[in-house]
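New to this. Explain the following:
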Amino acid sequence: MSDSFIYTDVSNYMPKETKKEKSGIFNLSLIKIVVGILCALLVLEIVIYTIIIPTQVPVKISFSGLKIYSPLDVCRITNITGTQTWMKFDTAAVASAISECSWVESVSVEKKFPDTISIVVEEREPVAVTLVNVNGRTIPVQIDANGILFFAKPGASVSHLPIISGFPIDQYVDGMRLHSKYRPLMEQLAAIQKLPQKYLAAISEIHVQPKDYGSYDLILYPINSQTRVLTDRILSEEALQYMVVVLDVVNSIEMNVSEIDLRYGAVSFRSSNQVE
């Protein structure tokens, strides 16, 4: 009896994959590939935005609030070169450098991820100008409503501001503050400048006249008159309107009046010879 081997192909008896099943397998594989690519891109984007951009790319700096000064002026003050990265940008140092400028009222320096720096600067609003002596030179300096004195930007005009004289300033330091008793006067000037009528445009100078007991009066010098006006420390729209009316009366009757005194609720005139 001899050994014999009989091969039978059983594949004909196994269930065959349909076209639909093959297509489903192909689609699943394609989805896996797409998902893998998307995950890789997401990881790459996270790496770019969290590591590469903050540490390698120069920051973008946005400025707001500036009126007289420019972003270039601020960059010069703070030594911002535009090459700093987001991670190395020192917001505290930049804010401190800007705040030391006498013309700066307030400043905010904020990082915005991943590559932006926002710098918001509020400049001081001058309400008057006074003359001070610096190194033997007489220089105009601006004053804001809080009584802070600060240099004007080189080349900027201060002719639109009222001139105030008589402040007891022995030694000027940029950014110094006037005595607190003069702050109401600066606040009054700020309020008057917001009025639609330009009352202060008719005055060439306001002189602070100290009193013996610490207070002071004001001497106003109108532009189109040789008559000066003496008034108290309250400078308001009503006081200026009253002054204009009295000056019109004096000019209309052509009196030789050198001074009008509006203090104490009465009006008196002073000429070179007498007081009426």
Observations:
- The chain has five helices and twelve strands.
